[in-house]
Amino acid sequence: MQPDPRQTSLAYLKGVGPGRARLLESELGLKTFQDLLYFFPNRYIDKSRYYTISELERSSAEVQLVGKIVHLKTVEQKRGKRLVATFRDDTGEMELVWFRSQQWFRERLKLGEPYVIFGRVNWYNGAFSMPHPDLELLSKHEQQKRLRMQPVYPSTEKLSRQGVSNRLLTQWVATVLGQLRDGLPETLPESILGSLRLLPKSRALVQIHFPDSNALLARAQARLKFEELFYIQLALLSKKNERKQRIKGFLFEQVGERFTTFYEKYLPFDLTEAQKRVLREIRADLGSNAQMNRLLQGDVGSGKTIVAVLSILLALDNGYQACLVAPTEILAQQHFNAVRELLDPMGIPAGLLTGSVREKDRKPMLAALADGSLPILIGTHAVLEARVVFKNLGLAIIDEQHRFGVAQRARLWKKNERPPHILVMTATPIPRTLAMSLYGDLDISLIDELPPGRKPVRTVLRSDADRLRVFRFLKDEIAKGRQVYIVYPLIQESEAMDYKDLMDGFESISREFPQPAYQVSIVHGQMKPEAKEYEMQRFASGKTHIMVATTVIEVGVNIPNASVMVIESAERFGLSQLHQLRGRVGRGADQSYCILMGGPKLSEDARTRLQTMVRTSDGFEIAETDLKLRGPGNLMGTQQSGILSLRIADLVRDRELLQSACQFAQQLLREDPALTHPENQVVRAKLSRMEVFKNRWDYIS
Ligand code: ADP
Ligand code: MG
Which atom from ligand 1 is nearest to the alpha carbon of 453? Predict the structure, then answer.
């Protein structure tokens, strides 16, 4: 077989050679002809139009003009000499300036003849100037046929120092394109190309490097972005389908007595429509033959716990055990309490396993799990330990996934010969299209409705100047029997300083709210777990009025009587964190408040974040804003999905393309799951060339 010319080493490209090939690899990661082909410009110099001097703006990027040099002089200053030309067109005048090679230009520049100049303009002392312009006599300029839009490639200082200029890179790309042009096969099926009017692959590759116009450039980019997103979606989806076929799940055939009894007699409230829908989705999974891998998304307070409990009952009714794993002791304890409260009346036992359970209590629990007499286990990571053995674990529920790695999820699988059904619950809202890309291997359920009667948390932004007023407000609330959280940022890098802020804050709060009238708790990451637990319990049981804390309380804690959340240095928190923190209040019947204490000087970014919090309590809207502000890199799951290694598409800016790529990928797999249709052979071929490297998809070819 002929070697694929696309895989030829760049060392063999005319004008490159082994030395520069090594440089291209170490600096830009380019090894083969193909790499260079997919090394896209990060911008273009638009020489498709001429500007006039009157059109120039202070922010003009690089521009091209036609005019004459009418005057030339050398200006001497303390810092050195410079050559200054007065350049004029029909609309005005500007200066061209040279600091280097002044003699050379002085001798050659022709006064009164039309020149084409190109460069970046500066605005200085009320006039425009252009240092070291590219210039050429108009008469000469017109003789040459040239690119109107010139590519500018990403580069490094080392490359420019070694003489690898943009001009050279451009030349090399052109050579590679010339050589491979006829060997660039189409990689999308005709039907998709047709219905989206996408450019053919080879045309898109030419146009993205050397566009004939802005319009064609846009189409070339759209085509390549679509392809990139489409294939990632397709790869994720087909992996999921394959897994579903390969791994058989336990079949929960019946809705049995416990589920029905609980539903009819013990359910403390009517389920929301969203909760019912999600339960139907879960039941459909459990009753199919495939193993469930489902992500349950629901904003804080949307009622995920009851969905978990009902799912657990389904497992029990079919003769299986279930476990529920939480990221912290406090949360595990809370879940345990909630489950006990709901299931004790029915006489269904549950065990709590955390790091602090003593050995003598642990032994009988482990025995009961192993012989099947304990049907439900709730706990922390301790549940994952190898010595925790179930008789037949049928369902594992993981709460708050972002504290929980994919690897840990995998450990749950190993508890049985067959992996249990898995339900991952998260309160971090992720825009739906994005969620589909991030969790291509999970199915997604969404609780998009809060239980009725919730009063939205009233959120305000305050500064240090308002502090006395804020304290007065807290006292009023406490007098009404409410409780208050005061949260300080604790961010790893500056932990010592943050810790000092926290302790200073605690002291001033203790002074402002003196004992015995007021009781103040404190919880932070440097305390022992038992001490933390003790303080949490005191607050939870209403023995203390104020909880001063770091973000340890961020996740899931449910204390309905706490109705005020004060967040100190709120500008230092990210949006999703602020949203999580605010979610700690507004859980009871009372009006709740969130007071964001902002520093004196807020950056634009911080202001947007805080104003977003004041404006809305919709988790999805907040997530969208967060995504726009910080990009997708900070979203949980992005690291694992490989979606960050995108070469050309941008998850935020190219949302619509992503959505359409998702739909087309789903449709294609629905209509032709095995990819046997002749038209889909290009898809099949490309999919088989895609590989996962260190959680990143290498997808382009
Ligand atoms: P989260 O989704 O944040 O885990 P929880 O499951 O803790 O939310 O539920 C928050 C509160 O709402 C709990 O006190 C719970 O009892 C209550 N709740 C859940 N679903 C409903 C419902 N359908 N109607 C009324 N209250 C509900
Ligand atoms: Mg919860």
Answer: 25
Which of 296, 334, 558, 561 is the pocket-test mutation for ligand 1 (most atoms within 8 Å of CB)?
Answer: 558
Pick the CATH number of 48-146 from 3.40.50.970, 2.130.10.10, 2.40.50.140, 3.40.50.300: 2.40.50.140
Beta bridge mates, 69: 87
Q: Which ligand is nearest to the CA of 453?
A: 1
Q: What is the DSSP string of 140-176?
A: HHHHS---SEEEE----HHHHHTT--HHHHHHHHHHH
Q: Which of the ligands is closest to the CA of residue 338?
A: 1
CA of 459 to the centre of ligand 1 (A): 21
pLDDT for residue 692 is more than 60: no
Helix axes 329-343, 529-540, angle to 10 degrees: 50
| Residue range 514-529, pLDDT digits in tens | 999 999 999 887 888 7
Q: Taking the C-alpha atoms of 546, 549, 555 and 558 in order, what is their torsion angle to the nearest 10 degrees? A: -10
- Antiparallel, parallel or unpaired: β 483-487 and 691-693: unpaired
Q: Give the atom of ligand 1 at the shortest distance from the alpha carbon of 304.
A: 2
CA-560 nearest atom, ligand 1: 14
298 CA: nearest ligand 1 atom: 2
pLDDT per residue as tens digits for the range 72-122: 999 998 888 999 999 999 999 999 999 988 999 999 999 999 999 999 898
Q: 332 and 380 in contact (C-beta within 8 Å)? A: yes
Q: Which residues surround ligand 1 with Cβ inside 6 Å?
A: 269-272, 275, 298, 300-306, 427, 451, 558, 587
What is the value of pTM for the model shown? 0.69
The domain ranges of the chain are 5-42, 48-146, 257-286+303-426, 458-616
CA nearest ligand 1 atom 25, residue: 451
Ligand 1 geometric centre to CA of 538 (Å): 23
| DSSP single-letter state for residue 593 | E
**How does strand 122-124 pair with strand 80-89?**
unpaired
Task: Tell me the per-residue pLDDT of 592-630, one tens digit each, with 9 for 90 and over.
Answer: 999 999 988 889 889 999 999 999 988 888 887 887 787
Tell me whether domains 48-146 and 458-616 share a fold. Answer: no
Give the number of whichever ligand sits closest to the CA of residue 619: 1
The long-range contacts involving 24-31, CB below 8 angstroms and separated by at least 24 positions, are 24/159, 24/164, 27/155, 27/156, 27/158, 27/159, 28/154, 28/155, 28/156, 28/159
Q: How far is the CA of 308 from the centre of ligand 2 (A)?
A: 10
Ligand nearest to the CA of 399: 2
Ligand 1 pocket test: which of 266, 267, 269, 426 has the largest number of ligand atoms within 8 Å of its C-beta? 269
Query: Cα angle vertex 205, ends 203, 206, to 5°?
Result: 65
Q: Which CATH superfamily is domain 257-286+303-426 in?
A: P-loop containing nucleotide triphosphate hydrolases (3.40.50.300)
Would you say 525 and 500 are in contact if contact means Cβ atoms under 8 Å apart? no
The sheet carrying 458-462 orders its strands as 458-462, 593-597, 562-567, 483-487, 546-549, 520-523
458-616 topology per CATH:
Rossmann fold (3.40.50)
* 433-447 confidence digits (pLDDT tens): 677 666 666 788 999
Structure tokens at 668: 């294609």
